[in-house]
Amino acid sequence: MKILQIINSLATGGAEKLLLETLPLYKEKGIAMDLLVLNGKENPFLEELKKLDCCMMFSLGNKSVYNPMHIFKIMPYLKKYDIIHVHLFPAQYWVVLAKLLSFSNIRLVFTEHNTSNRRLENKFFRFLDRLIYRGYHKVICITQEIKKILQNHTDLSDSIFIVIENGVNLVMIKESDSLMKNEINTKISQSDSLIIQVAGFREQKDQPTLIKALQYLPNTVKLLLVGDGILKKDCEDLTKKLQLQNSVFFLGSRMDVPQLLKTADIITLSSKYEGLSLSSIEGMASGRAFVASNVPGLSEIVKGAGILFEQGNSKELAEKIMKLLNDKVHYDLVADACQIRAAQYDIHKMVDQHIALYESLCQA
Predict the structure, then answer these.
(1) pTM of whole model > 0.90?
(2) Which end of the chain is less enclosed by CB atoms within 10 A, N or C?
(3) pLDDT digits over 60-100, tens only?
């Protein structure tokens, strides 16, 4: 059984990090699995995967992932594998079109990672999506909610969709050590309270609300923003406009996220929507209190464990943070509940479910 994973790139993101963490686990379990990226531009995740030396890696170049010429570049790979597992749009489209044009019998699997995208609101794309999703033997939905959304969007048979929740490496997070706070930045003192968010700077993520919340917090509260993306400059400009340069620190892409989570006092995820957020699970697994926006993909995971706030309400977010910092009993109850909740999302369980799916497709 030979499997090829295809994704747009390994730039910072949940689906990308998931591949970085699972590919070595598949190798440990004796599964022959390789990786193809539409854009092979160097980045920390790609460099780390190369160091792990756990799979063959292929790149279609450094051009835009939206270039339809990728369809023809993908075609030769269809002959070499039993199953191709695809992640994210537009790779989702290009692989199906490559299969159709080459008359291949390759078995295709797609994982839907988000509860929302612009195509869901567009009638034309609804028609196209129905055709594209039909090209997959199985569509993995990472939550029941996503399954319901896709069934309504595509009107396809229930048998195409399967729910397999994403997971995180709980052992890695548990065994990670914290850093000294001034190791992160010399402007931070050990007595400061640290808030951290790990997320790419794109429209889906709502770092501006988190930055604005700093206006209502003491100057001893510092915010760490981990990640990169097209909206990072906008967030830096907002920080300057609010004169919060000594309180907000942009750390870029980091490979020591577990250590940073252990160093923080409160972990947040201010987002407009999620699928099944790996960042939220990692945050809850770290033993720190977790605060998130009350939106699809987060509320289901966090409710009853972490703290939820109204999306976009920076003042409410600040109030929730202050209560955690000022009330140790409340803080400890939240942190303990978060760890218990995160234990449900072990990455090894997810990998075993994926392998069982691959085997069933090969035997069909």
Answers:
(1) no
(2) C
(3) 999 999 999 999 999 999 999 999 999 999 999 999 999 99
